[in-house]
Amino acid sequence: MARMIAQRLLAFLPVLLLVLLIVFALSRLIPGDPATTLLGPGATADQIAALRAQLRLDEPPLSQFFSYLWGVLQGDLGRSLKSGAAVTQELLERLPATLELAISATLVALVIGIPIGVLSAIRANTPLDHGVRIVSLAGVSMPAFLLAVLLQLVFGIWLGWLPISGRNSPYFLGDPVTGFAVLDGFLTGDPEAAWDAARHLVLPVMVLAAFLAATLARFVRNAMLEAMAEDYIRTARSKGLPERSVIFIHGLRNALLPALTVLGIKFAELLGGAILTETVFAWPGVGRYMFDAIRNRDYPVVQGATLVFALLFMLVSLGVDLLHAALDPRIRRRVGQ
Fold first, then answer.
1. Which residue range or ranges hold the ABC transmembrane type-1 domain (predicted)?
2. Where are the alpha helices (DSSP H) in 163-274?
């Protein structure tokens, strides 16, 4: 097991280097000039040239790449062209907001998606199953920005039940403890602030959880149908086990192993920043940070954020594989061999 972990970690290095090279090249292909964007349309040619020299944008691309790569090897992701702040610090400030959103959406999707998938499988080819499949197909197919706008319109504007943007109300802004707004409200003894943060969390979580729950329900349904057709299910029933035990102990337990892979991949994608959702809801996470950086042609932010996203994705993938090995003795035997 330790050797497998070491091999996977070593494999991260060429992948991260390739990601960095591709993003570096693509970011230079974005139309426009960062210096012109920062100075505005009224800037003179001399001012633009001076700022390009200050930001080292006048150097050859290859020289810029190796200079940036040397900084990355020293743990420096560079400085934002717009704010001048360290990219690492700005990412760390925004990561808790994305983590709170991703974890909340994943928990909601688990609570909704798994029971619906199991129910659809044990009632296969019934009107209930057809209805679940239609709803889950709609959840997978609907664009996130469209669902976000619809929820804002219904629950935020027409009904006025929930806020439609931001992470906190202006009068509840305080010093963060953990970076998780809801948890910080309880830790600081301010339940009203926690409730306000939870209300701001509802709509973006609903958008992300809708897609994830629909994906999970479809996958669990298919995995359950395959599991319930196996010989060990017929053996369990022939032994006189209650149907509930057959479904949840023997069927669901084996069906969840492949579903775990899908869940891990989707969670890693959420950690990478739900760019559209965070932008529509003005959520101050890494997704919106990335969107603003692309719009402003902020090369160091785009490169640093993408590198961190890739690393998080690979770490989550490794964690899922380790969890698989812990839950499935067949995988442990293969790893041991």
1. 95-324
2. 181-187, 191-228, 231-238, 243-245, 252-271
Tell me if 289 sits within 8 A of 90, measured CB to CB: yes
- Structure token pair of residue 89: 């610090």
Count of domains forming the chain: 1
Give the three-class secondary structure for 79: strand
**Residue span of the structural domain in which 132 resides:** 94-282
Residue 234 falls within a domain, yes or no?
A: yes
Q: Is residue 212 part of a domain?
A: yes
Contacts of 138 (CB under 8 A, 6+ apart): 214
CA 295 to CA 317: how far, in whole Å?
A: 30
Residue 25 falls inside a structural domain? no
Q: How confident is the model at residue 48 (pLDDT cuts 50, 70, 90)?
A: confident
Q: pLDDT per residue over 199-230, tens digit each?
A: 999 999 999 998 888 888 888 888 888 888 87
CATH number at residue 141: 1.10.3720.10
Contact between 168 and 190 under an 8 Å Cβ cutoff? The reply is no
Q: Is 297 left (phi over 0), alpha (psi -120 to 50) or beta?
A: left
Percent of the chain residues past pLDDT 70, beyond the cut: 92
Whether the Cβ atoms of residue 305 and residue 289 lie closer than 8 Å to each other: yes
Look up residue 255 and give its two tokens. Answer: 């069906």
DSSP-derived secondary structure for 248-280: IIIIHHHHHHHHHHHHHHHHHHHHT--HHHHHH
299-330 tens-digit pLDDT = 888 888 888 888 888 888 888 777 777 766 66
Contacts by 261-266 with C-beta closer than 8 Å and gap 24+? 261/320, 261/324, 262/215, 262/216, 262/219, 263/106, 263/110, 263/212, 263/216, 264/316, 264/317, 264/319, 264/320, 264/323, 265/316, 265/317, 265/320, 266/106, 266/212, 266/215, 266/216
Is residue 194 included in any domain, yes or no?
yes
